[in-house]
Design goal:
heterodimer; A: four-stranded antiparallel beta sheet; B: 12 strands; about 50% strand
Chain lengths: ~110, ~110
């Protein structure tokens, strides 16, 4: 049982490049989330999904897009990376009523 | 709107001493409350959660937390700190009717031998 798997684990981008972060969960969870973690700011919600085919904006959605075409996968896209998007990105998944959400191990992204 | 305040971004305790990490929330209705721990270069791991059952919640690794509605607090405690407790700790809330977690800014715990 792998839980929540994030790929890649590390990435360096140049300003203006695009990339997609993949989150995969094998627990049949309905809800999936993308957070970014920055020093002194805790975790801030970027986008989330409450089911296959649905997505919603979180606290800091600008500059990011997401898709949930399959229940087990939640993709986070950066169309034109900026240095301000340098961060550690975490994916999480869970089900309503059982709030012990499972987190992935993170993707460390640096935009230069 | 929800908010979570963790008092003290850094806390240091001696090995064997009491650990107390503070968390206060603001919410129009009592939310569900959580403590997560993050070890270096890892994701977040659930320590314990309050979901309107007993107000004193016991978690993993000897941690516990008490929900105090009158004080809007959910402080995390452990009677005796161990070196392996050194980590970042996050308090989080979610509304009973909601689906978004709101995290505090975290408290880094250092355990001094």
């Amino acid at each position: 049982n792998a839980g929540v798997t994030q790929t890649p684990k590390f990435r360096v981008l140049k300003t203006g490049q695009s990339m997609t972060l993949l989150c995969a969960q094998d627990m049949n969870h309905e809800y999936m989330y993308w957070y970014r973690q920055d020093p002194g700011m805790g975790l801030r919600l970027i986008h989330y999904s409450v089911g296959e085919g649905t997505t919603a904006k979180g606290e800091v959605p600008d500059g990011y897009n997401v898709s949930r075409l399959k229940k087990q996968n939640f993709l986070l896209g950066l169309e034109s990376a900026a240095p301000s998007q340098t961060s550690v990105y975490f994916c999480a998944s869970g089900n309503r009523g059982n709030y012990g959400y499972t987190f992935g191990s993170g993707t460390r992204l640096t935009v230069v | 709107a929800q908010s979570v305040t963790q008092l003290g971004s850094h806390v240091s305790v001696s090995e064997g001493a009491l650990v107390l990490l503070r968390c206060n929330y603001s919410s129009s209705v009592p939310p569900y409350l959580f403590w997560y721990v993050q070890y270096p270069n890892q994701g977040l791991q659930l320590l314990l959660k309050y979901t309107s059952a007993a107000t004193l919640v016991k978690g993993i690794n000897g941690f516990e937390a008490e929900f105090k509605k009158s004080e809007t607090s959910f402080h995390l405690t452990k009677p005796s700190a161990h070196m392996s407790d050194a980590a970042e700790y996050f308090c989080a809330v979610i509304l009973i009717t909601g689906n978004q977690f709101y995290f505090g800014t975290g408290t880094s715990l250092t355990v001094i031998p």
